[in-house]
Amino acid sequence: MIATHELKNRNRYLDKLIGFQDTEPVKIITGIRRCGKSSLLKLMVRHLKNTGILDEQIIEMNFEAHDFKDMTSDGVYDYVKERIVSEKRMYLFLDELQRIDAWEEAINSFRVDFDCDIYITGSNAYLLSSEYSTYLSGRCVEIKMLPLSFSEFLYFHGFEVRTVQNIFGKNSKAAFDKNEARYELKEVFDAYMRFGGMPGIADIGLEQERVLSLLDGIYSTVIVRDILEREKRKGQKRIADAVLLRKIVLFLADNIGSNISVSSIGNVLVDEGLLNTGRRKGKPSAHTVQEYVDALLSSYFFYEIKRFDIKGKEFLRTLGKYYIVDMGLRNYLLGYRNRDSGHSLENVVYFELLRRGYDVAIGKVDQMEVDFIATTVEEKIYIQVTEAMTDEEIRERELRPLRKIQDNCGKLVLSLETGLDSSYDGIRSLNVVEWMLEE
User: What are the backbone angles phi and psi of residue 121, rounded to the nearest 5°?
Assistant: First the structure.
């Protein structure tokens, strides 16, 4: 008998889907493999059934299942057409649709021919390339899904956060597991930083060998199925060198949060002896490296962040940065180490800002850098991330660029050790773990 896993809520994403229910746009859920897209579809199906939608009105297709994996666009259309219930609204859930060539033709036909509400998942940004958006005439809405936040990590792994008193009567927060064992929040946060936020880890537990095995499967699937295999299927040969691809993955993972020029990656790989040029015609060109990096961005494995000149009010073409979508994947690739924990902390904060709906850029003010400018329609926040604010020299280094900014927007320093002060000249200082728990 196959074990059934409890379907855990991802309310941040489910609420967005429910908000678009029964509206015209096709709902397209994107994100790296195994971040929870299929489970989100199941949560939406459960919601529909709980609100009175009949089983016969719901059609589910997973294109990685054996029954559907060799289906054509016409086959998808015929399968759905045979199951349409006349005079009832249908709900179509199409999982990993990017595996079907010309899928957009079937989707457009559904919208024209049937009364239906359509939900799609895809693990590759090519699904939403301008070519496909044109086919859908812009009538789609993208819901960007990420691995678990720290709050979700606690929930998925059975931790409950409670307010407790220390020996001096001061309130603080602690995490309790299902057996009522008590842990410092920092301990659980360290586990989150080590193992990452892939939902499947909650099914196997926080045991290193099992986690590494699961992450190896995710990595292999992304690289082989979403990048190399896709290129082969499309008859393209731009990204055919698996060795070069892995070296670029390792380079980007090793340099998260660092200013990187794509044109220099090939040079660095060769100069450091990471690429053997004996069987190659010299170094890979900047154009080749760019195509490989673009493929990794399209598979949601890495995210690129641009630099913004705060005084000049314009984006800069100079060096950007890359962050990896999940710290567990980074530790799988490089081994767990503590030498660049500051950049690791930045990485986690960056994705938390994305989850909360911010557009994020790196800030440049004079010759100094602000880690993040986080913007929504309603607010803008300048954020510095550092391990500790207890050392005076480090504290001044982090505060200096924020003090240079003359507007009235919020300014915030996030750290693991805040020191005694909660603000400096109007610049707030917060514990990053507690900030991660804010809604």
Answer: -120, 155
